[in-house]
């Protein structure tokens, strides 16, 4: 496994009353057995397509060909999609430096923009300033009926037409969406028209679970990432489930048991704090996955994403001295010895001689360790996860781990991990208000 998970600092034996007791954890692990059986059966019967994605290679060439087509002559690539249709792609794209502070502007190849939040000023400014003749738009919506994506796509088409580029729409646009069927209209496909190529979104893979499908892999391939390695990493995280390992030896089951057991004890906030800029969108992806999958019927715990070391200066005071209602997951990546080095003479001038000769990576690694240790010393339960090497394989493993952890946790608390009735209600109301019916 390309990462190591350790829950010792969440146990009562380590931190006292705020930790999880062996009895409570063992009970939760026993309750995982039916969920693991269900996952194995779903894999064997092919009733949960997500579980088959790690082993699939048949469509990787199609994704790579689409990526090559999109890159050709492109200065900018704009991804239109909201929620799971965008966050998975953003998470993978960060491996290449996209949306990493101070790095994106220096990357080779096309500039990539993820327009996931619908804002009139932001999107209007983007369309006004983009070189439209060399910009490619990728519109992603599973159903083809997502209002935000339809609005953005229509605005982009109108801008392209106004720029005299209507005859090039089939070249400038690309789509990812389900096929339309009898009695099932797909507004996005209709909007894009017959000249625009569209990759088929697997109808059995929901948006927030779609990062390993073409939804996430297409942006990754555009940026030159190894999409086969992403799936290889996911397969590594799935393997302990398929190998019928006991729950205590399945990292995702152990994580689910830990979260649910703590939730039952009143620790209803799950904090994921990653110590790497390239995992910042991963924490946002996790928040949607956990919240939308588990928050139903008055159940679930609240996910909170944090980024180290910057959030030590904004949230850590509350984490350590605030209510004891949180379980912490601290993710660290290799950092020691990396990055610019603090010149010894300048360290003396700054009054920090101990920093002389140290790298930025040395400091970040020390801060990640110190945060976890400080939380533990103050009686806060901490799960640590260390990535041996932050690359496509390890990120694929982390993504599959947390999807499995979420699905198992849903089984433990008795909710459907794959629907989102409250979200759908809001979408319906918004369309009614736009139509003047509310």
Characterize the structure shown.
- Helix content is 47%, strand content 12%.
- The model has no long low-confidence stretch (mean pLDDT 94).
- It is built from 17 helices and ten strands.
- The relative contact order is 0.16.
- The strands form two sheets. A five-stranded mixed sheet has the order 1-10-9-7-8, with helices on both faces. The chain has a five-stranded parallel sheet with strand order 3-2-4-5-6, with helices on both faces.
- With 438 residues, it is an alpha/beta fold.
- Helix 4 runs antiparallel to helix 12 (280-294) and helix 11 packs across helix 16 (392-413).
- The longest helix is centred in the first third of the chain and has 24 residues, at 22-45.
Mean pLDDT: 94
Helix content: 40-55%
Derived from helix and strand composition plus strand pairing, the structural class reads alpha/beta
Shape: globular
Largest sheet: 5 strands, mixed
| H/E topology pattern | EHHHEHEHEHHEHEHHHEHEHEHHEHH
Q: Report the portion of residues in β strands.
A: 5-15%
Work out the radius of gyration: 23 Å
Q: Give the termini separation.
A: 52 Å
Task: Tell how many strands the DSSP assignment holds.
Answer: 10
What is the number of helices? 17
Q: Low-confidence segments, ≥5 residues, pLDDT <50?
A: none
| Largest beta sheet: strand ordering | 1-10-9-7-8
In short:
The protein has 438 residues and is of the alpha/beta class.
